[in-house]
Amino acid sequence: MDSSRSLEYVLSMQGGDDDVSYAKNSYGPAAALASSKTMLTSAIDSIKLTKGGSSLIKIADLGCAVGDNTFSTVDTVIEALSRKVTVSDGKSDQPEPELEVFFSDLPSNDFNTLFRSLEDKVNSSSHKYFAAGVPGSFYGRLFPKGELHVVVTTSALQWLSQVPEKVMEKGSKTWNKGRAWIQGAEGEVVEAYAEQSDKDLVQFLKCRKEEIVEGGVLFMLMGGRPSGLVSQVSDHDSRLRHLFTILMDQAWQDLVDEGLIEEEKRDGFNIPVYLRSTEEIASAVDRSGGFRIEKMEVLKIADPMNAKQQELKDPESYGLAMANSVQAGLKPMVEAYLGPDLTCKLFKQYAIRAAANKECLKNNSFYYMIAVSAIRV
Ligand SMILES: C[S@@+](CC[C@H](N)C(=O)[O-])C[C@H]1O[C@@H](n2cnc3c(N)ncnc32)[C@H](O)[C@@H]1O
User: Could you tell me the superkingdom of the organism this chain comes from (predicted)?
Assistant: First the structure.
């Protein structure tokens, strides 16, 4: 996992629909989608569709994964668009524009499951649309110039294109010893992530600038942090949510203590996620050019795992639920690094650690998402 190419091929949500699948554990991103639905709908309302204009409206969902969220995002866009089309073109003799949706994600995404559910989903949508899958990284070009009218990306842009190269240099100040993520990491490590994050977001925006038609909409919902927060997770409630990374570090340490892996192997595993601040996002949009931010909102989301504390009374079941939800996002990447047996052992330890953690069991946690709607100018 030391190059962007290899990350593209191992980073994915867990496919299928078993207990550790993303489809069964995507309630966190679902809560974020629900909170930003009104903003997404008004972003679509601001698109200018002229009478007799485009007879085909193209929509792309970048980092679509698979599961209910994938289709609910697209349904929101389709509903808002078809309302708009009816209002603006209802009395004209022009035929209604046709809609085409591109579901895009890394090649490692479970496109098979997505394609199998497509027919039902399209038929139950408020407006029929044509659909296609587009495999590839959103940090590169995915579509021809001036092709798209609406681009959405939800709960995906916090994933970087790669672990920063500096963080992979053994023995350097940026070697992230004892941690899988950057919470509590040395300043140099966080700085390396911040640099990578900025480079990635600018690259993302430059690609979209080429692909989106003037007047088109870019809607981005990503894990982030409010204005002025230097640390990734500096307030108590969101630190609690990110306990998952501390539990993960403890589980890795268990493997080291049991002599199953060397420390160096543990230290070489890093999660390529960065939570951008509103200023970092605004600055990247500004420097990339081509977009005007219409609205940017910080959403404070109650972690749906809070409800599980009530629902699952015993710590073991709760620990297992926590481990399942973490595996949904990380298992493919961990498995590519550790192999199946050690991965299984790691997440067993994770479940045990989560079940034993009183803070995790008793307190409610929150996390922040940043929603941005921008117009291609
Ligand atoms: C947490 S899931 C979010 C899925 C869905 N959009 C939702 O709201 O539930 C993040 C998705 O982003 C995808 N992703 C991460 N990095 C990506 C990249 N560079 N290019 C395209 N997709 C990426 C992952 O493969 C994953 O499917």
Answer: Eukaryota
pLDDT tens by residue, 56-113: 999 999 999 988 889 999 999 999 998 877 655 555 556 678 999 999 999 888 899 8
3-state helix, strand, coil in the chain (%, to 5): 50, 20, 35
Q: Is 16 left (phi over 0), alpha (psi -120 to 50) or beta?
A: left
Q: Ligand 1: does its nearest atom lie under 6 Å from the Cβ of 201?
A: no
Residue 347 contacts residue 203 (beta carbons within 8 Å): no
Q: Which residues of 230-241 are buried (b: 16+ CB within 10 A; e: fewer)?
A: eebbeeebbbbb
**HEC states along 38-59?**
HHHHHHHHCCCCCCCCCCEEEE
Q: What is the band of 30 on the pLDDT scale with cuts at 50, 70, 90?
A: confident
Q: Report the 10 Å Cβ neighbour count for 130.
A: 12
Domain of residue 146, CATH code:
3.40.50.150
The residue to which tokens 């002599």 are assigned: 259
Q: Using CA positions, which residue lies closest to atom 18 of ligand 1?
A: 137
6: confidence class by pLDDT, cuts 50, 70, 90: low
Q: Which of 143-147, 190-194, 346-350, 359-363 has the lowest mean pLDDT?
A: 359-363
Cβ-in-10-Å burial (0-12, 13-18, 19+) of 327 comes to buried
Residue 260 neighbours by CB under 8 Å, 6+ apart: 342, 345
Overall domain count for the chain: 1
For residue 302, give its domain range.
4-376
Q: Please tell me the residue having the least CA distance from ligand 1 atom 27.
A: 65
| Pair 71, 30: CB distance under 8 Å | no
Protein residue with its CA nearest to atom 23 in ligand 1: 63
Contact 99, 54 (CB under 8 A): no
CA–CA dist 156, 60 (Å, integer): 14
Report the residue among 5, 8, 12, 13 best suited for mutation to probe ligand 1: largest number of ligand atoms under 8 A from its CB. 13
